[in-house]
Amino acid sequence: MTAQPPSNAVTHHYQQGDLHQRIDDALDRLYPGRSSLTADELHGVDEFHIGGHAATRQITEHLRLRPGMRVLDVGSGLGGPARHLVQQADVDVTGVDLTAEYVAVARRLTDRVGLAGRSRFMHGDVTELAFPTGNFDRAWMLHVGMNVADKSRLFNGIGRVLTVDGLFIVYDVMLLGDPSLLSYPLPWASEPSHSFIARPEQYRASLSDAGFEIVAEHDRRSQGIRSLRGLRTADAHHEGSAPQGPGASDARPASVNVAMGADASAKIANVLRHMEDGLLAPTELVCRLR
Ligand SMILES: C[S@@+](CC[C@H](N)C(=O)[O-])C[C@H]1O[C@@H](n2cnc3c(N)ncnc32)[C@H](O)[C@@H]1O
Known about the structure:
Largest sheet: 7 strands, mixed
CATH architecture: 3-Layer(aba) Sandwich
Order of helices and strands: HHHHEHEHEEHEHEHHHE
Low-confidence stretches: 1-5, 238-253
Strand content: 15-25%
CATH topology: Rossmann fold
Bound molecules: S-adenosylmethionine
Distance between the termini: 24 Å
Mean pLDDT: 90
Strand order of the largest sheet: 3-2-1-4-5-7-6
CATH class: Alpha Beta
Number of helices: 11
């Protein structure tokens, strides 16, 4: 079994110290003079995965949610995906995340858009889930496994807290080629010591060992490339302006770059190039317990 990274290497990568302020500033630029906002207006700022809100919406369809279901968001980040589930499907969402600053921002944004009653965000390590067995009807994990060395432990824990007819969706960046060709920084790791990127076949094996059967698999590389190109273009040409027109939310200037910090452009450029070269692919696996 590979040793877990010291959690501080991962949290050190994500935490910024002033993220509250940076997000407030970004939202002020997008919506000058507005004190109250809706969850929809946060999209582009609060989702930290390739494809942004469009990917969140598509993957939500595959969760087959019903009102009142209990959903676990594994590595919930700033809470955007969780808030979408609450709003879209009237479910109850619990998010767990290792980065204390992200948890604090997730709670604050959720309060700000009035969704705190149906979603909560907890600070913790998703490889040590302490919920009762069968506590959740659904779970999803968006761009988190790249930071987790021991995926078997992770998937066993998720399987334990799901109901027997539960569904679990993984949407991670996966490795298709030679890892020595990867350039850093990448959005999930500043350097290789805390990157645990794995191949689709490694995911399939760990999921199977944990009792999951994969019912669908979607390669989201082309969509991801389009989305990242849009993000770069928007940041280059429209810095400081509000989003325009349908679909603009995935290319907002005050975008996920806020969460990625000062070297966001380098992280986006590296991951985009590796996706264009066929070295990396954002991949969705829809799983159920056997
Ligand atoms: C790229 S962000 C994705 C956030 C969110 N899922 C989203 O799509 O917006 C990765 C997140 O995983 C969290 N994370 C990484 N390793 C973790 C662990 N072992 N336990 C809990 N959270 C973890 C990080 O703190 C970070 O918030």
